[in-house]
């Protein structure tokens, strides 16, 4: 399917989605978010897709919500229409999705990257929640996911001052999984996605679900949840294939069963 604001590139079992509004530093408007939700829904259904990489341009992953489009919004319309309430379904994408961030990931752009499973950043990446400079606060999870990722002190610093942090600071704070040279960014992300897509899909989906569940419940409940998923994988052919391949000193061929 052709999109107005996205470029889609499938490489074996990995799909690369590139945000494509360079004229506005990939500012997230309603078209982008509807097209992204549509593309992810399609990939969720497509058995040929094992993992997704979401990226932008060298200058900007996404510079936030489209301020020009949002400027005239009013409280009643935002509240009664639950403005941006539907976008959390992007965070509900069940397959693995990696954010490959170069340049600016600000406001909704940082929030979108945090909805992905992990972030690989180029050395040029800059992250922030500058909403306070516009007279608002983060509205798509910035105050919640950033605090869980980097802790109260740095999240409060970024949300109250609106400052940016560079890739090195973001990695040391725990927001970013890896930092690479800009020219390596997409290859690194696609290689990581391809490796994940080579594993057993039920195990990959359960690993993602278990990690995400740690934000939603007590440690005791989370340990029980994890253990039940662990038990269930011993009912899969892939568990037998994976452990059999190790014992026989050969590469496993997972069949997602
Ligand atoms: C009814 C609304 C429908 C929207 C529905 C879909 C929304 C989905 C996401 C919602 C998320 C909402 C919650 C979120 O927390 C709120 C936000 O994200 S608020 C925005 C936060 N971001 C910012 O404040 C960053 C704004 N940009 C900048 O500070 C600077 O552009 C920069 C990133 C520091 C780069 O500076 P420069 O290098 O100098 O480049 P320019 O400033 O000249 O920008 C180039 C060009 O891009 C346009 N542009 C940049 N950012 C945005 C933006 N966020 N929105 C719209 N346009 C943007 C800029 O205007 C320039 O365009 P030009 O003027 O040349 O036409």
Automatic annotation (TrEMBL):
PROSITE patterns per record: ENOYL_COA_HYDRATASE
Matches recorded under Pfam families: ECH_1
Assigned keywords, A-Z: Lyase
GO molecular function: enoyl-CoA hydratase activity
UniProt keyword annotation of DNA damage present: no
Enzyme class at the top of the EC tree: lyase
InterPro entries membership: ClpP/crotonase-like_dom_sf, Enoyl-CoA_hyd/isom_CS, Enoyl-CoA_hydra/iso, Enoyl-CoA_hydra_C
SUPFAM superfamilies: ClpP/crotonase
EC id: 4.2.1.17
Family: Belongs to the enoyl-CoA hydratase/isomerase family.
Protein name (database record): Enoyl-CoA hydratase
């Amino acid at each position: 399917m052709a999109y107005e604001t996205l470029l889609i590139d499938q490489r074996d079992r990995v799909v690369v989605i590139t945000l494509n509004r360079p004229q506005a530093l990939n500012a997230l408007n309603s078209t982008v978010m509807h097209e992204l939700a549509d593309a992810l829904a399609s990939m969720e259904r497509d058995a040929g897709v094992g993992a997704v990489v979401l990226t932008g341009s060298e200058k900007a992953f996404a510079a936030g919500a489209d301020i020009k489009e949002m400027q005239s919004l009013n409280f009643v319309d935002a509240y009664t229409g639950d403005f941006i309430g539907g976008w959390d379904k992007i965070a509900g994408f069940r397959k693995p999705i990696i954010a490959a961030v170069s340049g600016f990931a600000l406001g909704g752009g940082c929030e979108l990257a945090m909805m992905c499973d992990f972030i690989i950043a180029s050395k040029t990446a800059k992250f922030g929640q500058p909403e306070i400079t516009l007279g608002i606060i983060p509205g798509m999870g910035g105050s919640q996911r950033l605090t869980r990722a980097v802790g109260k002190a740095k999240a409060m610093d970024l949300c109250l001052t609106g400052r940016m942090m560079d890739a090195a600071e973001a990695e040391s704070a725990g927001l970013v999984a890896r930092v690479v040279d800009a020219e390596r960014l997409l290859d690194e992300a696609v290689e990581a996605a391809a490796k994940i897509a080579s594993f057993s899909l039920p195990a990959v989906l359960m690993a993602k679900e278990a990690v995400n569940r740690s934000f939603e419940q007590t440690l005791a409940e989370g340990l029980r949840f994890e253990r039940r998923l662990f038990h269930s994988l011993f009912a899969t052919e892939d568990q037998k294939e994976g452990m059999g391949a190790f014992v026989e000193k050969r590469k496993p061929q997972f069949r997602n069963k």
